[in-house]
Amino acid sequence: MRRTNIGACPLRAQVDPRLVRFSAGATASVLAVVLLIVEVARPLSLGLLASQVAVFAFTAFVSFHWSLWAQIFARVIWPQISAPTNLQDARPPRFAQFIGFVLTALALITFILGLDPAGYSLTALTLAIAALDASTGLCLGCKAYNLIHRPKPA
Description:
The structure is a single chain. Helix 4 packs antiparallel against helix 5 (116-136). The longest helix has 22 residues, at 91-112. The protein has helices spanning 17-37, 42-61, 68-77, 91-112, 116-136, 140-148; strands spanning 14-15, 88-89. The radius of gyration is 17 Å and the shape is globular. The protein is 67% helix and 3% strand. It has a two-stranded antiparallel ribbon with strand order 1-2.
């Protein structure tokens, strides 16, 4: 029996840009629901926020390709569209997922501590960033990654 190493997968270092936008749209939807229901169904809202924190964590620290949104994209949307014409480096979107993880984790903590204005603000900020990415393809976390990892002049 041949063993394979998941790290050896050639697509692990690259990602379909359409998946990144789909993931941002799904994330924006979840965060919008969180903001809409937090006052009337707080346990459900915080559960949804916690699930989004978990999705961000998995995507940032484990794999974009095995995340919840990637699996839905692969099974439902990808069979309906053509193969990607280009792939992009997976590191910037994963860094963006890390930023989303930090913001939503802080939002969850502030909601739990009863600091609702901070929770609303952090959730709304993350929602705005995700909605911008989903609607325009402008990934602010990816831009931040590229600024941080810009090649140094010789």
